[in-house]
């Protein structure tokens, strides 16, 4: 399939501080084909020596539906994927560098990135049209641990399956990228003491995601109960698509970013813009549950989480 025309991948946003000049922003989350990252790969012998790594976009596998034995099931099984609204993939090349390691979890690490340039292999240097920091929102790179590559592949499938919710209840995902590093190299997130298989390259797998806002407050009451329970991104959004988030906990619910050039989209189910986003779908799965079953499975988890947060405590699911 040929790359999409440039006009399908960009949108013009007029901003007063530019003197009424147009600002082009990347509107298609599948516009990037190549990601070149600085400061992610270092030498095992000399950790101060870094080298760029080239990562190429991969197409995630379709999310496989899981059939269960729960009381309330969809008669036709797991729901079909909502048709994509994206144009054909673009051919953009993005040059980025790692700014900081923001955190780590079961699947891998999240790193803040800085975009230095954006070019279109089939057209102009977008930096000549718009500064890179204005073309894209602030981004993070979620890099899989060496033992969790398949889990990140599953998360890529979940983001693809939930395309309709990107920018609504989950982050925008600008692609799943993979590459390799030599046995003499390692990632800055790798354990330097871990054994190195002889003569075997290290596979690198990463998601390029929209950076979210901060953590939810602890010891404060969130907006009214209707907003908290009926409009929360963990309840009634991914469930509409049959997605079960098996890792619903405090660290995985964040505020939406505040970026006027990339505002939150209106929710197709509630008709409003939501202030929260759910993250971390490496353990998620697509089930045959009805909305009623999803509610029964998770209302207790979410309700206890919100109540303990208001009481100035964090109660994780494994502590119930």
UniProtKB/TrEMBL annotation:
Keywords: Signal
Position of the signal peptide: 1-20
Superkingdom of this protein's organism: Eukaryota
UniProt key word Signal: yes
Name this polypeptide is given: Protein kinase domain-containing protein
Organism expressing this protein natively: Psilocybe cf. subviscida
Top-level taxonomy: Eukaryota, Fungi, Dikarya, Basidiomycota, Agaricomycotina
